[in-house]
Structure to design on (210 residues):
C-alpha cells in the first residue's frame, strides 16, 4: 500500500474534492492532496483548498491560451508539487496527450452517468441528467474511469447505479447521483493506493484484498 500524492483538478464548487478530503480525514483513503488546480478564477474548489491549507493554483487560459501551453504549465505545477496521481473533480477542460502520457493510467475522472451511456463531448452537469430523463431511462448512476484521449472513454474502475424516479427533474436526479459520486470516487482511489488495479487493454480488473 502506498499513499497517493494527489493533484486535484476542478472547475466548480468542488463537492467531489470535499468528499475526497473527508475520506482522507476519516482514514478511509490513503492519500494526501498536494495541490488543487483550477481553470476558473472563482471556482469554489479554490476556496475549499485555502480553507484546508492546500496549495491552490489558478491557471488562466488568458495567459496560457493554447491548450499545449496550458498543459505545459499544468505539468510543471503538478511535477513541482510532487504529484503522482491526478483526480478530475468537475474539471471542464480537455486534457492534451501531454498530461495523459505523463500520468498514464494515473488520471481518474468521475462522470454522472453509467458509461458508456450518456458520455462524450458536451455530456456534463445538467446536460447528462436531462438526456437521461429524455431517454426515459429507469436507472442512472455514476462512473469513475481512467482518462484517455477520448472523452469519457477510458477503462471503468467503479460504477454505482441509482434509480430514476417518475417525478424526477434534472436537479433531483443530479442530487441522487452526486451522493453516489461522493461514495465511489474515494473507493476507486483507494484501489490504486492499495495497488489493486490492473489494466488489461480497455478494461480494468480489481484484485481482491490480500
Amino acid at each position: 500500500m502506498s499513499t497517493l500524492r494527489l493533484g486535484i483538478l476542478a472547475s466548480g464548487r468542488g463537492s467531489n474534492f470535499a468528499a475526497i478530503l473527508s475520506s482522507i480525514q476519516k482514514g478511509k483513503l490513503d492519500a494526501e492532496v498536494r495541490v488543487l488546480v483550477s481553470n476558473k478564477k472563482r471556482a469554489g474548489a479554490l476556496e475549499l483548498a485555502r480553507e484546508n491549507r492546500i496549495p491552490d493554483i489558478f491557471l488562466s487560459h488568458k495567459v496560457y491560451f493554447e491548450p499545449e501551453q496550458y498543459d505545459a504549465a499544468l505539468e510543471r505545477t503538478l511535477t513541482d508539487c510532487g504529484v503522482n496521481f491526478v483526480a478530475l473533480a468537475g474539471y471542464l477542460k480537455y486534457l492534451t496527450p501531454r498530461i495523459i502520457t505523463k500520468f498514464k493510467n494515473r488520471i481518474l475522472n468521475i462522470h454522472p452517468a453509467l458509461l458508456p451511456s450518456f458520455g462524450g463531448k458536451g455530456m456534463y452537469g445538467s446536460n447528462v441528467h436531462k438526456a437521461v430523463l429524455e431517454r426515459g431511462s429507469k436507472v442512472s448512476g455514476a462512473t469513475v474511469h481512467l482518462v484517455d484521449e477520448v472523452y469519457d472513454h477510458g477503462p471503468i474502475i467503479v460504477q454505482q447505479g441509482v434509480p430514476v424516479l417518475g417525478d424526477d427533474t434534472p436537479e433531483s436526479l443530479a442530487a441522487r447521483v452526486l451522493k453516489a459520486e461522493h461514495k465511489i470516487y474515494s473507493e476507486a482511489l483507494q484501489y490504486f493506493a492499495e495497488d489493486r488495479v490492473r489494466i488489461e487493454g480497455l478494461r480494468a480488473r480489481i484484485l481482491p484484498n490480500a
